[in-house]
Amino acid sequence: MNIGIDKIGFFTSDLFLDMAELATARNEDPNKYLIGIGQKKAAVIRNSQDSVTLAANAASKIIDDADRQKIDLILFGTESGVDNSKSGSVYLQHLLGINQSASGVELKQACFGLTAGIRLAMGHIMMKPDSRVLLVGSDIARYGLHSSGEVTQGGGAVAMIMSANPRIMTISKEYSHYTKDIMDFWRPLGFSEALVDGKYSSDEFIQFFLKTYNAYKDMTKLESSDFEALVFHLPFTKMGYKALRAGIEDETVEEQNRLFEAFDESKQLSQIVGNLYTGSLYLSLISLLINRELKQNDIIGLFSYGSGAEGEFFSGKINNYDKQSLIESLKWLDQRKQVTVKEYERIYLSAMLDSDDFETDYREDPAKFILKGQKNHQRIYGEH
Ligand code: HMG
After folding, report:
1. What are the residue boundaries of the Hydroxymethylglutaryl-coenzyme A synthase N-terminal domain, all occurrences included (predicted)?
2. Which of 185, 193, 234 has most ligand 1 atoms within 8 Å of CB, for mutation?
C-alpha cells in the first residue's frame, strides 16, 4: 500500500522583521545574518497566536467537510505546547469542527515531533487503510532578545493530511534513525526561551545527518545520484547547506551542483520565515514542491533533527500533485507587513507567558483563529 502526504498547508504570522535591520540594531554586519546565517526575514508572532491557533490556521487551509468527517486521528507535534496535561489536538479538533470520534495526541521531541507523527500515521493507516490522519507541527521559536540565537527565531505551522494513495508524496517505509542523549538545545520547565549551546548543536546536527544519511543509503542501496533533492530541518538555512556539503563532499562537482541547486529551492520559505521547529523540515518540502520542476517518481530525501537529540532520514516519491494550486495557496505570504526592530521588541515582550489572566491584542490580528486571552488559567480561543 502507498501511504504518504495527500494535502499540505502552511501558516505563519502576517508580520515579519527584516534581518539586515536586526543586524544593524545589534551592531552586527548585516552580511553575517544574510550570508553567514542565511536568513533574510523572520516571522514575528503576535501575542494573539500560540501553537494551537497557528496549527488551526494552518489546518484550516487544507481541510474540507469530507476531511472533517473522515479524519480519525490527529497528531500534534510541538515543543511550544500551551498545557502540560491537555493535548493541543483536543483544542484543534474543536476549533476545526472535526468529528468527535477522532482521537488525538500531542507529540514532543524538540523539532522531531512531527516526524514522529509521520511514523505513527504510517502504522495507523496500514491498519486502517481508509483513514485520513491530520498532522500538524506548530511552534514559536523564541530565544532571548540580543542573544546569538535571536537571528534564528521564527514561527508558524505546517499541516498535512496523510492517507493511502496520497496525491503529493508517498513516504518510504524504510527510515534510519539515531538517538543520543545530549544537551545541545533545551527549554527547562517554566522557561519561556530556549537555552542552547549553539556551536555544539550545529556540529551535532551535521553528525546526525551523516550517520542517518549513510545508514539509509546502506539500507536501501540508493546513492546520492538517486535523489532529486535532499531537504532538511532548517533552524537557519546555512545549517542545511553545511550538512549537505558534508554529506556529498565525495560526489562529482556536477552532482554536488545539482543537489545544491535543489537545496536552494527548498530553503526559500525558511529564509523568509525563520525556524518553525517541528514544521521546519516540511516547510522545506513545500518550498521544493513550489520551486522545483519535479516529476512523478522523483525521490526526495528528508532529514529531520530534534535537539536532545534525535535524527531521522527517510525518503518520499513524488506523485502527480497540483503545483499551481500549492503556489496560489501561499500567495498571502507576499502581503505580510514589515515591523521595525522597536515594534518587534514590543511584540516579543508582550507575549503574556507568565500571566494567569490576560487579554491579547487579538483585534489587530487578521488571522482566522486567535487567542483572545486567558482566565482562571483557561485559554479563550476565538474565530474572526
Ligand atoms: P554566532 O555564534 O553569533 O555566529 O551564532 P557565528 O559567529 O558562528 O557566525 C555565523 C556565521 O556567519 C559564521 O559562518 C561566520 O563566519 C559568518 P560559519 O563559520 O558558520 O560558516 N559571518 C559572516 N559571513 C558573512 N559576512 C560577515 C560575517 N560575519 C560572520 N560579515 C549560532 C550562530 C547558530 C550559534 C546561533 O545563531 C544559535 O545559537 N542559534 C540557535 C541554535 C541553532 O539553531 N542550532 C542549529 C542546530 S540545532 C537544531 O537544529 C534544533 C533546533 O531547531 C531546536 C529543536 O530541535 O527544537 C534549534
Report:
1. 2-164
2. 185
The residue whose CA has the least distance to atom 50 of ligand 1 is: 235
Whether the full predicted model's pTM is greater than 0.90, yes or no, is yes
Q: Are 59 and 9 in contact (CB under 8 A)?
A: yes
Q: Which residue in the block uniquely carries the three cell numbers 532529486?
A: 228
For 235-266, the pLDDT digits (tens) are: 999 999 999 999 999 999 999 999 999 999 99
Residue 179 CA to its chain's centroid (Å): 20
List Cα–Cα distances, 260 to 123, 265, 266, in angstroms.
33, 9, 10
Predicted ipTM of the assembly: 0.98
CATH for 3-168+326-383, options being 3.40.250.10, 3.40.47.10, 3.30.565.10, 3.60.9.10:
3.40.47.10
The protein residue with its alpha carbon nearest to ligand 1, atom 1, reads: 148
Pocket test for ligand 1, best of 114, 143, 152 (most atoms within 8 A of CB): 152
- The C-alpha cell that represents 191 in the structure block: 522557561
Question: What are the boundaries of each domain within the chain?
Answer: 3-168+326-383, 170-320
